[in-house]
Design the sequence.
């Protein structure tokens, strides 16, 4: 993915900021959402958590009260402003940061969380993203990713596939603009292969509309 593509993705999420949470209103997903909202805090409880691409803070609001400390990062000022108003616990900080260039000035953590971010990372940048993320984590840290299962009729249709194997959707916002968005749907095997040499003790969980992938860093 080029710098131009990064800018297009950021522009899309800036434009979508005020309507982003509509994705959590789908009636068929409510049971899965309640399950994740209850479960995620149990994984991250008492940890110092680095959250990547916190967006509007939808998931942050559930695990932050149980965590020791949370640093929630995102590249978008617009979505982060929404997150700041949503999550008011004393143990949380917010910081604008590039998910592909997490600076050592952010500190060290013993857990990382990313909700609905990994699917936007192109295949060619997965290893670089994970290596950079792990540089911010202590040995044996917990990493938790959650994302979408592809379900016909509940997800935007896949409209393109590139030579790397990345898939794309065409999404239309309420302002009428259309956006070409990279959105991958990795398999359990693909996720396990992704952390080969980087992590162990992985646990994959498949729900009707979402998946979770948890592991410990080497």
Sequence:
């Amino acid at each position: 993915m080029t710098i131009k593509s990064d800018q297009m993705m950021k522009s899309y999420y800036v434009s979508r900021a005020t309507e982003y949470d509509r994705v959590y209103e789908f009636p068929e997903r409510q049971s899965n959402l309640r399950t994740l909202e209850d479960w995620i805090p149990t994984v991250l409880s008492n940890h110092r958590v680095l959250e990547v691409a916190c967006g509007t803070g939808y998931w942050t609001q559930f695990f932050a009260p149980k965590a020791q400390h949370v640093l929630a990062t995102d590249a978008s000022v617009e979505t982060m402003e929404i997150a700041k108003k949503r999550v008011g616990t004393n143990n949380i900080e917010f910081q604008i940061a590039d998910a592909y260039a997490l600076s050592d000035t952010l500190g060290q953590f013993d857990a990382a969380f990313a909700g609905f971010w990994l699917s936007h990372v192109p295949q060619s940048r997965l290893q670089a993203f994970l290596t950079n993320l792990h540089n911010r984590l202590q040995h044996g840290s917990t990493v938790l990713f959650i994302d979408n299962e592809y379900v016909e009729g509940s997800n935007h249709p896949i409209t393109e596939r590139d030579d790397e194997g990345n898939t794309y959707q065409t999404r239309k916002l309420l302002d009428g603009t259309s956006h070409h968005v990279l959105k991958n749907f990795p398999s359990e095997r693909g996720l396990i292969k992704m952390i080969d040499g980087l992590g162990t003790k992985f646990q994959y969980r498949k729900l009707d509309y979402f998946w979770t992938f948890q592991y410990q860093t080497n």
